[in-house]
């Protein structure tokens, strides 16, 4: 007993508190939604432990477990199966297209003397700062029936539209042009670590530059390329913002179907099945990505110093520069379209707005000031919770070798936002822990969804701190918890600050969680933009979207300054 109490120090208690947090707000909801997919009815797990009546009801439901909901998916004409197939097609198509499109740009950044690299790197941040439902509306402003690109097309003698933006093709194009940065920088890194001596050997043996690229450079970068492709698939498959704006009624996609089942029909069985399917698909491709990285050895870096010779062929550089500019131009024009719409009096009859005004910005500050305040409060609450939990998770993983916490804290990476939202609603919709419709559950959902980013940032800082600094504090009489807070904490501040800003930025942009969980009195800016778009209040929606983007830009610039991050 003495030995047990000796182990129960402050750090141990904190570790078990963090485990409890993940158990209550992540593992139980996911397990609960799995049970619902078999029972077809809501299951109150927490209530079963506090009420005999609820326990009896739960046992009755569990006695009727069935896989009928899953087997029926494969029946003829089932909309769920069609939604799954369409989503798999979408993810695969976007992953392949992004890889093909980004490959030349990644090579240009990593292995050539292409000019304007800092400028292009800055343009690459545009897709990252725009929530996907805003990007989707930008494409409507550009390529819709009254879009400015369509107007230009008509002026040159064209008829109709260049393509139907509210279709599978429109969704693919938005995702391709706004998800490519997720693949670009890993591919740049893959090209940079290739051993240039192998390329030099190939050229010394008489191989042409193009042949060396195809047979030497490209194969060495294969792990990074395949990993990026799998990442893009997961991001595309889980994306909610694009299809909710652009998917026509006849196009079934799994994220949209799951949202409609819970928000429109309160169909727990259907939403649970779709949620489990989303989780399984996302988990499989996440596992596959990790397998690609770890399962194959392409290492070429040795202790021998090598100087990387950048390609300076004039024709190659010119071609790659023009190509990179054209790809970056699309999201830049999309951002410009949102801005023009935010200051337009009316727009749709000509390529440019009929007039300009700042009244839409006055409107959002006068009528939507509550939404702005809500976003700041919710993001701040998420920030505090994320900083505390992530910092100590990093400490336990790095200093104490806690593989369990490392595993549990990585689970949110494979959970789509819409799936997490549905799981939390199902779990906390009734007593004894009735949190659905409260700001607290919204903050917890944001924290769980975005915490992995914070953990990665703080973990890298933790690894850079020597262990003997902490040991010196302990040897002078400080407890392990006090040493961690007063010695390790201050040294981790740059990593904590950078991770905190990243969390704040992603929470400001969060859509799927906000749409499902945010109560009316706590609606954030992202939800206000979404609702304005649905109501047809496009100009004020664009004005608030620009406000979100400005906030994100400022915070990302601050994060970059804190981390001194070099992307090129």
TrEMBL record:
Q: Which Pfam families would you find in this protein's record?
A: BPD_transp_1 (PF00528)
Give the transmembrane region(s). 16-38, 90-110, 119-143, 168-191, 212-233, 265-288, 317-340, 376-398, 405-425, 431-448, 469-489, 538-559
Q: How does it sit in the membrane?
A: Multi-pass membrane protein
Q: Tell me which InterPro entries the record gives.
A: MetI-like (IPR000515), MetI-like_sf (IPR035906)
Subcellular localization, as worded in the UniProt entry: Cell inner membrane; Cell membrane
Q: Where is the ABC transmembrane type-1 domain?
A: 84-289, 372-559
Which keywords are on file for this protein? Cell inner membrane, Cell membrane, Membrane, Transmembrane, Transmembrane helix, Transport
Decide whether keyword Membrane is in the record.
Answer: yes
PROSITE patterns per the UniProt record, alphabetical: ABC_TM1
Record-stated family: Belongs to the binding-protein-dependent transport system permease family.
Could you tell me what this protein is called? Iron ABC transporter permease
């Amino acid at each position: 007993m003495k030995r047990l109490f000796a182990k129960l120090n402050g750090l141990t208690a904190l570790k078990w508190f963090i485990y409890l947090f993940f158990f209550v707000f992540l593992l139980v909801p996911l397990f609960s939604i799995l049970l619902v997919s078999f029972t077809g009815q809501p299951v109150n797990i927490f209530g079963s432990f506090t009420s005999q009546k609820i326990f009896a009801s739960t046992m009755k439901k569990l006695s009727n477990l069935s896989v009928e909901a899953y087997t029926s998916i494969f029946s003829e004409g089932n909309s769920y199966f069609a939604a799954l197939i369409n989503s798999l097609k979408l993810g695969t198509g976007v992953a392949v297209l992004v890889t093909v499109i980004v490959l030349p740009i990644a090579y240009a950044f990593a292995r050539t003397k292409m000019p304007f690299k800092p400028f292009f790197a800055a343009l690459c941040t545009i897709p990252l700062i725009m929530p996907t439902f805003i990007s989707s509306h930008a494409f409507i402003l550009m390529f819709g029936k009254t879009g400015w690109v369509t107007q230009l097309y008509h002026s040159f003698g064209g008829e109709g539209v260049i393509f139907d933006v509210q279709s599978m093709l429109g969704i693919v194009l938005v995702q391709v042009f706004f998800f490519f940065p997720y693949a670009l920088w890993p591919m740049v890194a893959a090209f940079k670590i290739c051993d240039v001596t192998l390329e030099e050997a190939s050229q010394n043996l008489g191989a042409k530059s193009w042949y060396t690229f195809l047979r030497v450079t490209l194969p060495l970068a294969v792990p990074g390329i395949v990993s990026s492709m799998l990442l893009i698939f997961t991001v595309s498959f889980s994306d909610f913002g694009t299809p909710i704006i652009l998917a026509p009624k006849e196009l079934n996609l799994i994220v949209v179907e799951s949202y409609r089942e819970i928000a429109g029909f309160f169909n727990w069985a259907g939403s649970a099945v779709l949620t489990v399917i989303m989780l399984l698909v996302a988990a499989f491709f996440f596992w596959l990505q990790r397998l690609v990285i770890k399962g194959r050895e392409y290492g070429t870096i040795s202790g021998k110093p090598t100087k990387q010779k950048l390609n300076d062929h004039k024709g190659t550089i010119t071609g790659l520069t023009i190509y990179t500019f054209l790809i970056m131009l699309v999201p830049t024009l999309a951002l410009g379209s949102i801005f023009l719409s935010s200051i337009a009096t009316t727009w749709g009859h000509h390529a440019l707005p009929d007039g300009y005004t700042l009244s839409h910005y006055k409107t959002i500050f006068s009528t939507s000031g509550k939404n702005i305040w809500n976003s700041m409060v919710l993001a701040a609450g998420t920030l505090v919770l994320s900083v505390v939990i992530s910092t100590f998770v990093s400490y336990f993983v790095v200093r104490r070798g806690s593989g369990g916490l490392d595993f549990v804290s990585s689970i949110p990476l494979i959970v789509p936002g819409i799936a997490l939202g549905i799981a939390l609603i199902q779990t906390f919709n009734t007593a004894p822990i009735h949190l659905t419709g409260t700001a607290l559950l919204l903050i917890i959902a944001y924290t769980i969804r975005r915490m992995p980013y914070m953990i990665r940032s703080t973990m890298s800082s933790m690894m850079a701190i020597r262990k003997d600094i902490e040991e010196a504090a302990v040897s002078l009489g400080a407890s392990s918890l006090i040493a961690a807070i007063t010695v390790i904490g201050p040294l981790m501040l740059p990593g904590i600050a950078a991770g905190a800003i990243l969390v704040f930025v992603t929470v400001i942009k969060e859509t799927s969680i906000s749409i499902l969980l945010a109560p009316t009195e706590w609606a954030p800016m992202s939800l206000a933009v979404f609702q304005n778009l649905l109501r047809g209040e496009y100009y004020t929606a664009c004005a608030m979207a620009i406000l979100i983007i400005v906030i994100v830009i400022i915070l990302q610039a601050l994060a970059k300054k804190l981390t001194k991050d070099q992307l090129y």
